[in-house]
Amino acid sequence: MFNRIIVALKFTSASKYALEKGIGLAKDYGADLHIFHALDYNLKKFDDTHPTLIEKANEAEQRFEKEMKPLFGDLKKFTFGCEPADPALEICKLAQDKEADLIIVGCHQELEKSCIGRIDYVGMTILEMASCPVLLVPLCV
Fold first, then answer.
1. Contact, 109 vs 139, CB < 8 A?
2. C-alpha count within 13 angstroms, C-beta hemisphere, residue 10
3. Into how many domains does the chain fold?
4. Is 18 exposed, middle or buried (0-12, 13-18, 19+ CB in 10 A)?
5. Nearest in space to 60 (alpha carbons), one of 9, 122, 5, 123
6. Containing domain of residue 102, as a range?
7. pLDDT for residue 50
8. What is the gyration radius of the CA atoms in the chain, in angstroms?
């Protein structure tokens, strides 16, 4: 059912929980898992060789390696990418380019808010623009 899954990663508890769900689905379906983290959009003004952009990208990759990669266990079919971007637009573009079957996004707002209030701008934009189904994962604590 799922061959390619995209996970939006924000390095929050909600995002980590959404990634765990994505890893489980990727294992269950033998799907490729693509994880994307949007760096600060203001870094777009720099070219790929700018020291600040390189530093921020390296920080994100190291954080992924330290905090998220241990969650993968024996899953080998995954990629991690990061670049300066509008997170919602880039996730939708990535999903279209990769012909994704599913986008997974964590709900980042406070638990006490109503359901629709727990979906931030990124989640709402992805819901409106996605070329495939979107799974919104609430943080269950």
1. no
2. 19
3. 1
4. buried
5. 9
6. 4-137
7. 92
8. 15
Q: Looking at residue 88, which CATH number applies to its domain? A: 3.40.50.620
Q: Encoding tokens for residue 123?
A: 């989640």
Q: Give the separation between CA 5 and CA 57, rounded to whole angstroms.
A: 22
Q: How far apart are the first and last CA of the chain?
A: 29
Cα–Cα distance for residue pair 18/97, rounded to 1 Å: 21
Residues with Cβ < 8 Å from 34, sequence gap 6 or more?
A: 4, 5, 6, 7, 78, 79, 81, 94, 98, 100
* Residue 127 CB contacts under 8 Å (≥ 6 apart), including other chains: 119, 134, 136
Give the Cα separation of 49 and 62 in Å (integer).
18
- Residue-wise pLDDT for 47-103, tens only, equals 989 999 999 999 999 999 999 999 999 999 999 999 999 999 999 999 999 999 999
Residue 1: its pLDDT value, please? Answer: 86
Q: Read off the tokens for 97.
A: 């380019």
- Residue 40 makes CB contacts below 8 A (sequence gap 6+) with 56, 84
